[in-house]
Amino acid sequence: MIDPSNPTAPSDPDQAAPRRLEHPGLPATVWLAELDWLTPQRREELLTLLSGEEQQRLQRWRLPADQDRFLLGRGLLRLRLGQALGLDPTRLCFRLGPQGKPALVGLERQDTPQFNLAHSGALVLLALHPERPVGVDVEQHRPGLNWQPIARRHLPSGTLEALEALPAEQQLDGFLQHWCRLEAGLKATGLGLAAVGAPPPPGLELHDLHLPEGYAGSLAVI
Question: What is the 3-state composition of the chain as percent helix, strand, coil, each rounded to the nearest 5?
Fold first, then answer.
């Protein structure tokens, strides 16, 4: 995520309930959840799922919206993984990789699901695959973002020129979609921005996601 932003105004919590994206051809399951779903009761329910370490991490976020994004992401992750594995969500254990990508530990089974989380604005995305590494990214559209220096530094050669050749009103949207593809691919490999420019891993698939208006997103599977 480039930079966290404030969520949109509240709406009907039931309409914001976590839902699976029904995109034909997606090689992984992607869940979308909105912060508006977090009523006070649901906050309390999700808090009971978190480990002590996760609750400490939650408190390190200063802004309520950042706390809600973390809580919704980790709560949704535990619920969906627990459901997939037939386990109590509170008993799942995670470790962080060198670049901060979480992974399940302590399971005596070979079919451990692969997963990844992303959030921006009012949205949280969770990608799940039974065995293949996945990465997911989402970005909220923010008018006025100075995207050209970011594109010049991090995106493949020629991308900036191609984006600047688009009509002005399409350039920011185009940049955000390219950025989501980059981030999703890096997250699937477990690498950070230091790996930008390296050849893509064999078998990498990138899929753009159809999200609510004002957001761009991509899924990567290896």
Answer: 40, 20, 40
